[in-house]
Every structure is written in C-alpha cells, then in structure tokens.
Amino acid sequence: MLSTRKIIVVAIATASLSTMVACGSSSPAANPAASGGSSGGPAAGAPNLKGQSFSVLGQWTGAEQAAFQSVLDQFQKQTGATGTYTPTPGGDEATVLGAKVAGGAPPDVAILALPGAISQYASVKKLKPVSEAGQATVRANFADEWAKLASLDGTLYGVPVDASNKSTVWYNVKAFDTAGVTSAPTTWDGLLKNGKTLSDSGVTVPFSIAGGDGWTLTDWFENVYLRTAGVEMYDKLARHEIPWTDTSVTTALSTLKQLWGDPSLVGQPDTALKVAFPASVDNTFKAQPSSSVVYEGSFVATTIVGDKNPAKLGTDAKFFAFPSIARSKPVLEAGGDFAVGFTSNPAVQPFLSYLATPEAAKLLVSHDGSGFLSANKKLPSSSYADPTSGDLAQQIVEVGDNFRFDMSDQAPAEFGGTPNKGEWADLQTFLGNGDVAAAQQRLERDATAAKGWS
Fold it and tell me: Which of 174, 9, 173 is nearest to 87 (CA)?
C-alpha cells in the first residue's frame, strides 16, 4: 500500500434487482455474508443478481488485489453477480477518474481516497446519495466523523471501505538499542534528541524522508499542524477558511524545519528529494540500514513485508505514536478510502451497503499481507492477519471521533492530490530550500487557484 491515494473504479452492468436491505442487521436477510449462499445463486434474502456481471478497475495489486478479490467473490456468492477486477498502473487518481467523468462515461462506483473529490463530484450532481439501507449500515458500524467526511450538506455520498493510521513513526529496534535509546519519544523535543543520539552513534541519516513522493510530506506537515494549531484551526485550513499565510502555518513549518533543515538528522535535502516512499522504508529496515526512523502511516508495515526486508514486525520493526508538540493532547490523523456511486445502476447501492459491513471488512483485513485496516467498530482486532495490524486498527477504532482526516485528501485534488502540483510540489520545494515565507506564499497561491473547496 505505497500510497492511500488509490482509485478503484467499478463498472457494473445494468441489472434489475430488488433493493438490498441494511447489512448491519444480525438477520441473514440483512447480512448476506452471514448466510451461506453458493455461487449457483443468491443467498436467502440477498438481492438476485444472478447472471449479471460487473468490472472493477483499480490500482491495487499483489496481496491487496487478492484481498479485494475475496470481497468480490463473496459478493458474487451471496448475490450471483460476477465481478472482474483489472489493476492499472500509476497513482494519478484525479486524472483517471476526471477523464472518465468529463467524457460522459463515469464508472458506476469508484473508491476514492479523497473526501475533497467526493465533495467536488457531489456539488456538481455527479454522485448518487447513499441509500437508506447503506446509511443505516454506516451509522451502525462507524464513528460519526467517517460519515461526515463523505457527506455534503448533510447528505451521505460515500461509505468507508478501509482506513489507515497516519500518526505512526516506525523505528529500527536494533539501531535504537545500539545507540542507547532506551524508550520511544513522546514529545517533539524528545524525537529530535533521539535523532541526535542516533547520529552520534554513527547512523548516516537517522530520519529517512521520502521527499521523492510529495504526499508523504503533506502527512508530515499535517501531523505537526494538528499538534501545533489544534483541531479547530486544522478544520479551517482543511476548508481553506484561513489562508496558508496564517501565522499558524508559519509555526508548523518552522517546527518542521527543525527536523527537515538539519542535515545531521535527514541528510542532504537534494538526496531526500530523490527518495521514494518504498525506498525510505527499505533504508530503515534493510539488512544494512542507512537510517533508523521513518515516518508514515500504518501501511509501512505492508511495505516492510512486501519488500522482503529481513526485519520482523513487532520485533525488529516497531512503531510509536507521532509525538506531542508543546504539550498537545493526543490526537490521530487518519486516511482511508470511500466507495461512491456515480450512476443509478440498481446494483450500486447493494454493493455500497455490502462494503460497509464488518463481513466485507474482515475479508479485506484478514488476507495475509494485504495491509488493510478498517475503522469498522464491529470488527474485532482478532480479525487481522497479525497483531501489529490489529493494534494499529484498534487505535483508529478507540479514538472514535477524536481524529482528523488527512488534510490534503480533503482538498480539491488539483491542490492536495496531484503529483508535481499544488501542495505536494510546494512542500518538496520547502524541503529543498527551507524558506518558510516563500513556501506559505506558494501554498496560498496554489490553494486559491484550485476549484472545488467545500
């Protein structure tokens, strides 16, 4: 899961079927995954989609693709509908989906990592509201904040599918032990101090910064801003209700510069700007590591395993919560994907309802190596393929509404979700030159130029 900015486009063939009842109920009719149907026809109480087919276009490959395929297979088993998934390369979801919609051939269902994109499409009447059954499923299984993220003017347009804990810092246990770092830091000052200790012990680049991927830098900024400005200011900046030239942004960027601007901690900026996210993880956990710490979300665990690093999760590779800054209270930044419907195809709403159930979530998270997490509060942590993933997901569930979604994912994709543009590019420039005032001017210019703020 190299980035949470993924898109899965689902084109479902037109079919005539009854409306699926709410999947959050404990009855077999309301919960198709709980009733033992067969591939020969729909399970009792599930909509009859036998003979129908739908195609899925997305960017998940490997274990992620296999996990999602298991969801499609189970949906087919319960309804009779056949789904075919085709992965596509690349990471520019805004362009891929935008071209389809602009061309008059939108997918029936898309899974978006950008709540900002949901608002954009909903505001121009391109999305269909979630059915009453789907709404009931979401209310039963998720904290209210998740529904708010996929809503516009009080109308729900998307259902949560997967989630990521984006307030995790990962470290090489052996490197910490060798340097004499006996405990994970809980404060920003402690984080910087540990970095100096690691540097003094001979670690070439204590913090591995994935500057080659602009989205990782937005996550760094958002965690720092959340802890220096607070949730209310975070919400305002996320909606561009305050400018990026605000003093709160100055404070956050200046704080971030304490780390990014110190070569003894992050190496030379020009080198960091060439490091892609997978390489940043490898640099920390390969056999001969050059770094000891890498910040990113819960999907770091997937990269460690998927890239065949020798480090073992929970033993050699551990994580701690993003530290407090100036005594800030605990808060979590999250990311995730939402399923939305673009057409009135009668299969769309039943599929959305199914994706919001704990049964569908279990299929995603229990698949070995998938790295999927879920904010579904009805899903026990024992459903996960490994204890580390269960712990990461439990933090998301336990925090309830006391989290904030990835800020750049809430922004119009032109500003917050496109490679080499907007916030991604502006923070890469800031990493390279450390000019706080210039970064704020560029960020405000690009934010103002973007269309679609909710």
Answer: 9
Asked whether the predicted pLDDT for residue 115 surpasses 90, the reply is no
According to DSSP, residue 22 is labeled: P
- Rounded CA gap, 346 and 132, in Å? 14
Q: What is the 3-state secondary structure (H, E, C) of 120-179?
A: HHHHCCCCECCCHHHHHHHHHHCCHHHHHHCEECCEECEEEEEEEECCEEEEEHHHHHHH
C-alpha span between 39 and 77 (Å, rounded): 4
Using only the alpha carbons of the chain, give its radius of gyration: 22
137 with 39, same domain: the answer is yes
3-state secondary structure of 361: helix
Range of the domain at 11: 7-165+335-405
Shared domain check, 443 and 387: no
Strand partners, 9: 57, 110
Q: Is the pLDDT of residue 16 over 80?
A: no
d(CA 426, CA 435): 11
Digit-coded pLDDT (tens) for 279-322: 999 999 999 999 999 999 999 988 888 777 789 999 999 999 99
Which is nearest to 434 in space by CA: 272, 253, 228? 253
Answer whether 72's CB lies under 8 Å from 111's CB. no
Can you give the pLDDT at residue 17?
A: 28
Nearest to 309 by CA among 285, 293, 290: 285
Same domain, 111 and 73: yes
* Inter-CA distances, 345 with 10, 15, 37, 360, 395, Å: 11, 7, 23, 21, 37
- Same domain, yes or no: 65 and 190: no
Same domain, 243 and 363: no
Q: How many of the other CB atoms lie within 10 Å of CB of 307?
A: 13
Question: What are the tokens at 11?
Answer: 């084109």
- Cβ–Cβ under 8 Å, residues 12 and 18: no
